[in-house]
Amino acid sequence: MTLDLPQRPRRNRQSPAIRGAVRETTLRLDQLVYPLFLHADDADTPLESLPGQTRWSVRGLVDEVGRCLGLGVDKFVLFPKVDDALKTRTGDEAFNPDGLIPDAIRAIKAAHRHACVITDVALDPYSSDGHDGVVTDDGVVGNDATVEVLCQQALCHARAGADTVAPSDMMDGRVGAIRAALDQEGLTDVSILSYTAKYASSFYGPFRGALDSAPKSGDGDRVIPGDKSTYQMDPANVREALRELALDEAEGADMVMVKPAGPYLDVVRAVREHTTLPVAAYQVSGEYLMLKAAAASGWLDERAVVMESLLGVRRAGAGLILTYFAPQVAEWLKP
Ligand code: PBG
Fold it and tell me: How far, in Å, CA of 61 to CA of 109, rounded?
C-alpha cells in the first residue's frame, strides 16, 4: 500500500549526500579548546582520575602543545597543581611572576608563537582552604578582597604573555575589575573569557582530584565552607545565568561561558539567545570521565558518543567548546 503523504521527511535522509546537504550543525577543530594540567615536577604523570590525561612538566607541556598544534588544535587553557608548601589563605602564589603558570606561558610562547594560551583566574589551586577566593576569619569567601587578588593574578598571566584570561571564580564584579587592571597597564589586547554561568556542580570531582584543590575541612575554631555554593550557581537556575550574562557584558567580557556543558544545554541555549558575544561551554572532567568509563566498559562506542556529545553542545549554541577530548577529536577527524 502507498500512504497518501505529501510530507515524507525521510526523503531528506536518504543518502549521505543529501544528509550532508541538510546538516545544520558542524564541529570544527578551531572551535575546540584543550585544558591541560601541569606541575613543577620533571615527570609527566598520568592522571588516575582522568584516564588519558596527564599532569605535565613544563617541558612535557610544551611538547604536548606542539603535538596538538600539529593536529590542528591551537587553543589551550592551563591548570596548575601547586605544591602544598606554596598554598596560603590568601593564595599569593597566584601572582608570583616566577610561578608555574607564568613560566609555562613563556615556555609555550617561546616554542610555539601561534599557540593561543588561556589561563584560569581563580585562587583554588593556590588556596590552603581549597576555595576560589579568600576565606575570612568569619568563614565566608570574601568578595572584594578576592577580586583584588584576582586582578593581580590576571595581570601576572597577561604580563607573561597570556592571550586570554578566564576568571572561573564567580566573584561579583571581577570581570570589570580585571578589565580595568589590564587596561591601566596597556594590556588592552588581552581578552577576557568569563565563566559567566558556572554552576556548583558535582561533575568537577575528577578535576579537583587532579589538582588536589577541593575545599578543605576547617581546623578547630576556623570554619571553612565545605562547598562552593555561596559563589558558584545553583544547578536549579537558568534565569540567574542571564543576570550574570548582563553583568559580564556590561563589565567588558569578550566571551562568555557556561559550565558544565552536557547537563546545562538549556543554559547554553538561553545564553546564546541573549547575547551577541561568542559563547563557550566547558565539557568538564566528570563528563569526560563518564564517557571514558562507559567506553572502557565496552558498553558505549567512544568515538560515536564523544562526537555526539560535542555536536549536542554545538547545537545548543556554543561556538567554542573546552574539552579534554580535543586532540582525540583531531585524530578522529584526520582525513
Ligand atoms: C577552578 C576550576 C574548576 C574547574 C575549572 N576551573 C573547579 C572548581 O570550580 O571547583 C573544573 C573543570 C573540570 O571539572 O573539568 N576555579
Answer: 12
